[in-house]
Amino acid sequence: MPNTKSGSKELRKGARRAFRNEVVRDELDLVIKKVRKAITAGNESVAREALTKALQTIDKAAKKGYLKANARDRKKSRLAKAVNKLKK
């Protein structure tokens, strides 16, 4: 337990931030999982739709600072590469 008033406030702020981070991480995991599931099923049209939503979500997360720029680019690239393999 914190000893000071400001310490207890920081504890509350940290809890709120952790919750917000968890919500964003869960949303990212969910949209990426949808794309991967469509790829595994071999359904290109569903995969492309899910990819569009995933790319938007990844960009939003990076813009708000939940992902670094290189992590954003890496995730987007790998998902797009996997979806493009379905064409062949």
Could you please describe the fold and organization of this structure?
It is a single chain. The protein has 88 residues and is mostly helical. It has one domain (5-85): Methane Monooxygenase Hydroxylase, Chain G, domain 1, CATH 1.20.58.110. Helices cover 84% and strands 0% of the residues. It is built from 3 helices and no strands. It has helices at residues 5-41, 44-63, 69-85. Helix 1 (5-41) packs antiparallel against helix 2 (44-63) and helix 2 runs antiparallel to helix 3 (69-85).
Briefly, what is this?
The protein is mainly α and 88 residues long.
List the helices and strands and how they pair.
Blueprint: H1 5-41, H2 44-63, H3 69-85
Helix pairs in contact: 1-2, 2-3
CATH topology: Methane Monooxygenase Hydroxylase, Chain G, domain 1
Q: Using the 3D structure, state the CATH architecture.
A: Up-down Bundle
Tally the helices. Answer: 3
Radius of gyration: 18 Å
Number of strands: 0
Q: Give the CATH H-level superfamily.
A: Ribosomal protein S20
CATH class: Mainly Alpha
Mean pLDDT: 95
The total number of structural domains is: 1
* Form type: elongated
- Alpha-beta classification: mainly alpha
N-to-C order of helices and strands: HHH
Terminal Cα span = 58 Å
Percent of residues in beta strands: under 5%
Assembly state here? Answer: single chain
